[in-house]
Design goal:
heterodimer; A: 400 residues; alpha+beta; 17% helix; B: 135 residues; Alpha-Beta Plaits; 2 domains; four-stranded antiparallel sheet; two-stranded antiparallel ribbon; 3 helices; elongated
């Protein structure tokens, strides 16, 4: 008999729900088998924390006196440009935005000390940020300039809205060239000096629900310490990549577009990021509960690091030139051992994704569910799966 | 045999003298230069690992002190802002001296200051600006 989400939520209300983390579930299934694990476990919690560049926040600042129309003008927060081309008082700032005077990579590699990701962290932390607006006047919005401190407590809405987070699997970045390179996968030392990877592996949300059976549009999630929801599939959502027998994708595959109230978030799980020589980003913590509806979900959530294979990609040539070549596949078990072998060379590995924070998030979410503070949701709509035929499109360039 | 990692601040009037060479010869020391910069008129900066007999290393350092060279222990100069570190571990593969290691029990990054050679690679590599080097 399959279990329903209503039944699980009833158990949560009564304080009788059995919740374990995805890491614990792997051990339970190994020890007791899928059937027993399904009978014993209602919910598996996942977690991940890493730089997620396609993140941003939007705000509504309220009405100034006299009124000002940001739409059509320009706007900055702590000197970082915010997108204001909505109506009068809505702005959006992306994690990768930089102040106009940032030297970027003029002297390579640039430091990228402060950008949109840092603005979001400071704003979420309750710090005042400097808002500057310059625009044109209209009969109904006569004011043309505004320079004021802005605080999260004083704005109408502050919402984290991320277009692509929580990637299902990711590349392992290496460098085959003779000089160090500075990438979004970190600093990659020459001649296979290191290999950087970026997934929470055994704890990663979409690797525990590889066919998007329970995580879908409308799913309530842990987002940046507060509550969020899956709004849509992430951009570049690519469900049709090759998969292992247990449906684990062996290439970057699905992704989530997520949304949540920034006012309820905690900067322990929301951090400005500076990637040397690359740019700024936002470190985001996400946790997703997975209902164990049947034995298949028990099997899926028992995925172990050795079941997850990631492609090794040369970021000095293959990646920048958008070539599909890979140098092989490596398991998360091997990546976590600290050393992998590439082209007969032993290469030290470095994670970009924080496993200790992923563990902490899965644990916090587990406690919230046990205490009855966090209920599960039935997705309103499914994310496109491998049957959708959706594949990642390369840019088709047509000279103008 | 002992090994000391030190930061030496040279006054500008000494930068043209073969001081390190003479202490190395006189006290039979081995040395490894970790970082060096000379910027007159401020003087010079040398980050050095000295290896040798306990007495020899101490006498050599005492001699440097007499010459008005300011000596600091290296480990003090590299710090981690623990509240900024998210323990991702991206610094671990970049650290050439195993001063940053992932503890596989709790998956947190341990910073072993006594192994640090102050190369500053982690300062650049840390996405969260958690590593600070003050020389």
């Amino acid at each position: 008999m399959p279990r329903t989400i209503q039944e699980i939520n009833e158990k949560i209300k009564q304080g009788k729900v059995a919740v374990v983390t995805a890491e614990e579930m792997t051990g339970i299934v190994k020890k007791k088998g899928v059937e027993k694990a399904y009978q014993e476990v209602d919910v598996v919690t996942t977690g991940t924390f890493g730089p997620m560049c396609s993140s941003g926040m939007y705000l509504n600042i309220g009405s100034t006196k006299p009124r000002i129309k940001i739409g059509g003008g320009t706007c900055t927060l702590n000197g970082v440009p915010a997108y204001g081309a909505f109506a009068a008082a809505d702005i959006y700032v992306g994690a990768a935005q930089l102040p106009p005077d940032d030297p970027r990579n003029t002297i390579h590699p640039g430091a990228f000390r402060y950008g949109g990701g840092h603005v979001i962290e400071e704003f979420a932390a309750g710090k005042d940020v400097a808002l500057e607006v310059a625009t044109y006047g209209t009969d109904c919005y006569p004011r043309k300039t505004l320079k004021s401190w802005l605080n999260i407590k004083a704005v109408n809405e502050a919402v984290l809205f991320n277009l692509r987070n929580s990637y299902q699997n990711y590349n392992v970045g290496v460098n085959l060239s003779d000089k160090a390179i500075y990438t979004y996968m970190g600093i990659l030392k020459p001649r296979l000096g290191n290999a950087n990877y970026c997934s929470a592996g055994v704890l990663s949300p979409l690797l525990n629900d590889p066919l998007y059976r329970t995580i879908g549009i409308g799913s309530r999630i842990f987002l940046g310490g507060g509550v969020g929801f899956v709004a849509w599939q992430g951009t570049q959502h690519n469900p049709s990549v090759p998969r292992t027998k247990r449906e684990v994708p062996t290439r970057p595959a699905g992704a989530l577009c997520v949304i949540g109230d920034l006012k309820g978030m905690d900067t322990r799980y929301l951090r400005g990021v500076s990637m040397h020589g690359y740019g700024t980003s936002l470190g985001v913590g996400i946790g997703i509960p997975i209902p164990i509806l049947d034995e298949e979900m028990a099997l899926f959530t028992s995925v172990a690091d050795e079941d997850i294979l990631a492609p090794i990609v040369d970021y000095s040539k293959a990646y920048p030139e958008a070539k599909p070549d890979i140098l092989g596949e490596v398991s998360y078990k091997d990546l976590r051992s600290g050393r992998i072998t590439v082209d007969d060379k032993e290469v030290p590995t470095g994670p970009i994704s924080s496993f200790s924070k992923a563990r902490e998030i899965a644990q916090v979410l587990k406690e919230r569910i046990k205490k009855g503070e966090f209920a599960l949701t039935e997705p309103v709509e499914k994310l496109p799966g491998k049957e959708s035929g959706i594949t990642f499109k390369a840019f088709h360039e047509r000279p103008v | 045999m002992i090994s000391r990692r030190v930061v030496l601040h040279f006054p500008s009037e000494l930068i043209d003298q073969p001081i390190i060479s003479s202490i190395v010869k006189r006290h039979n020391l081995e040395f490894n230069i970790l970082k060096a910069s000379i910027a007159p008129p401020e003087g010079g900066l040398l980050v050095l690992e000295l290896q040798g007999g306990k007495k020899d290393v101490h006498e050599a350092l005492a001699f440097l002190k007499e010459l008005n060279i300011k000596i600091e222990n290296l480990s003090r100069d590299v710090t981690r802002k623990d509240d900024a570190c998210v323990h991702c571990g991206v610094c671990v593969a970049i650290c050439p001296s195993d001063a940053l290691v992932l503890n596989t029990m709790n998956w947190e990054v341990d910073f072993l200051a006594d192994k640090c050679v102050a190369c500053e690679l982690c300062v650049k590599a840390c996405p969260y600006a958690a590593m600070e080097v003050r020389l």
